[in-house]
Amino acid sequence: MRLDEFKQRYNLHQLPTDTGPQTHRSLRQAAVLVPLIQTGSELELLLTRRPDHLRAHPGQISFPGGKVEQSDLNYTDTALREAFEEIALPRDNVEVLGQYPMFNTFTGFAIAPIIGVVREEFQPILDPGEVDELFRVPLSFLMDPANRIKRQFSRRGVHYPVYFIPYEDYFIWGATAAMIDRLCRQIAD
């Protein structure tokens, strides 16, 4: 899928309304950038792998992002700030298309996914305290429903879906995979 087709589908199709697992506790506010980039004729999604030494979610695949800081103007500001801090993606190199509804996690976060397009290639500089690796996944791979796995799990008597996306040597799961599934379902034919 090319960028112009993606934008058309994104703008025409209704935003998803699912918000992830329901929780009855106070959630910390966070935002992530869901960055897409055109490489040749292929649109790709940029993802990061967290370092193994981190206490929270070590080694997991995620989008650039993090907790909302008091100095952030809004969720978009948080996502762009975090993307710059984590992978050196300049904020003026991102065309923000919009924000998905908040996504709640069992780990205590309400995450605002900010959909953005990286305008041109950039030289990533990874913050070793936050990111071990930056990699790309073709959107065409993610769009194939056979590559997105959904399973039902139960936690404290509550049933909820958990998403999994195996790609090459990477295993994308949890909130990141759920947000990818949400995006793919929105822009599907």
From TrEMBL:
This protein's source sits in the domain of life called Bacteria
Matches recorded under Pfam families: NUDIX (PF00293)
Instruction: Reply yes or no: does the keyword Metal-binding apply.
Output: yes
The record's annotation in SUPFAM superfamilies points to:
Nudix
Provide the alphabetized UniProt keywords: Hydrolase, Magnesium, Manganese, Metal-binding
State the CDD domains in the record: NUDIX_CoAse_Nudt7
> Which InterPro entries does the entry mention?
CoAse, NUDIX_hydrolase-like_dom_sf, NUDIX_hydrolase_dom
Q: Where are the transmembrane segments?
A: none
This protein's cofactor list reads: Mg(2+); Mn(2+)
According to the entry, every stretch annotated as the Nudix hydrolase domain falls at 27-159
Q: What is this protein called?
A: CoA pyrophosphatase
Organism annotation: Shewanella marisflavi
